[in-house]
Structures are given as C-alpha cells and as structure tokens.
Fold:
Amino acid sequence: MYMWLEWIVGRIGKGYGLWLLGLFLVSACEAQYMDVYQESQIEQFTVERADGEILILTITPILETAYFCSGVKAVESDDQIKVSVVRCRLNAECSVDAVAMPDPLNAGSYKVTLPDKGKLIKLIFGAEASLMRP
Structure:
C-alpha cells in the first residue's frame, strides 16, 4: 500500500521524502477550506426585496464547529442569477462575491445583500438547483 512512499524515501532520502509527504498532505487540506453548501446543509433560505434596489438573502445553514457561511458566489445570466452559498473553514479566507454578515436577531443566520436586477434567483447546491423569486 505504501510502496510509492517507500520508493520516494529510498530515492531522495528519508528527510526529503517525509517533507514531500507533509507538503502533499498540507496541500490536500488547503483545498478543503472552501466548499458550497448542499441542500441538506441549509435549514432556511429566503429572498426579500428592500428599497426596490436591493435583495436581502437570509441564510440559515446547519450549525457546525469547523465551518461558517462566508458569503455567496453569484453568476448572472440573461434571466437569472445563480447563487451558491460558500461554506468556509474557520480561520480561513474564502473568496466570495457578496459577504455574509451574521444576523443579530437570529443566531446562526446570515444576511447577504445583492443588487436587485429583477431576475430570478437560482440557488445552486452542487449539481442541484432551486428557483426563487423575491
């Protein structure tokens, strides 16, 4: 099972082989800092229109100890805006198009504002999607 590791250690020496293995493992962990919430991980998602020019998304993900909702990724097309809710590891920075702010009135909920362009909001959960209208 670990023949490839033995081969690397034998070729470049014990110290370098273990260093390369550690680098590989750290790199694999870095990729896990950001993810997209799946439908089963979102307890509530609502869209409200405010002031005619702003949409307020209210997101309540499941409570987790190692991840939080950092915001959303939004991709606009002709008739809709595809929104993915970003699940980010604690103490990590995840790239988002709109930042989520904790809702002071509802513990565990987040508010995200987007410009209202009169388009459908399509919530993306990996390969699945759900349409919403404000």
User: Anything to note?
Assistant: Confidence is low (pLDDT under 50) at residues 17-32. The chain has two helices and ten strands. The two ends are 54 Å apart (CA to CA). The CA atoms of residues 62 and 68 lie 9 Å apart.
